[in-house]
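DNA ligase (ATP): structure, please.
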Amino acid sequence: MPARVDPCLAMLVDRPPPGPDWAFEVKWDGYRLAVHIEPSRVRIITRGGYDWTDRFPSIAAEARLLGLKTAILDGEAVVLDGHGRSDFGMLQRALGRLPTTQGPGEIILYTFDLLYLDGCDLRRLPQRERRRLLEQVVPVDRNGAIRLSEEVPADGDEFLRVACAHGIEGIVAKHHERPYRSGRRPDWLKITCTRRDSFAIVGFEPSTVPGAIGRLLLAARRGGELVYVGGCGTGWTQAESRKLREVLQEIATDSPAVKLKRKSAVFCEPVLVAEVEYRAWTDEGKLRHPSFKGIRERADDATVYELK
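Here you go.
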């Protein structure tokens, strides 16, 4: 049994692929995890290879109840809002990163692939066969902390339209006949309703509300440098805004990481990465309608967006 498997990552495309060779699922908005079930323990490994078992106690406890000797489940840890949609901000609050009344017991793992089962490495099998075995391990009607990410038998364009109308981040398409291959490959494709990427936080502008943030100042990479790509002023509660300001003030600096002059700005060391949803890029190279979704960690393989 492998100690770790680098995950298969979906390539971003503009439209769903046509034809009967593709399976479609909801694109979940959370933390990508691999659950390793071993004879004497359960390990929960992030996309970046870090052991986060202690952060997901309900998922680890339920994995022990699946009745498997050895297995590796691939999935996404999420928290659902009142409409059944995954919400990254709610997940961060449940993990204790932002103020909340939610707890880790609300976190669900939607599993969508099975890489190893009872002594057998399944990665060379086609996706349809791995899926058949996964549905035996995690049935469609299973509730609790570990659930099945269902395949939707629909036309890709129509499924994307409905997903976007319901406020879902997007959809994922997986080729039925492909094996599981680590890295970003065209075996899996993602189609999003809005764009979403990670940007370095290089400072903030104070809010008129005492102790809060008015705008985060964001940067992308170009070569070996950081380039300012605009400010983000929405996506947080007042409590979250005050917490962010406290954190950023602790890493304030007099040497900005980008070429930017703002009279009221407080610049900080570019060590935190913000997950941001946005519509498009302006002609001036700035984010259009950005909204803050949370802080990504390096343990989740957070990478700053690279400008072409």
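Notes: Residues 98 and 240 are 6 Å apart (CA to CA).
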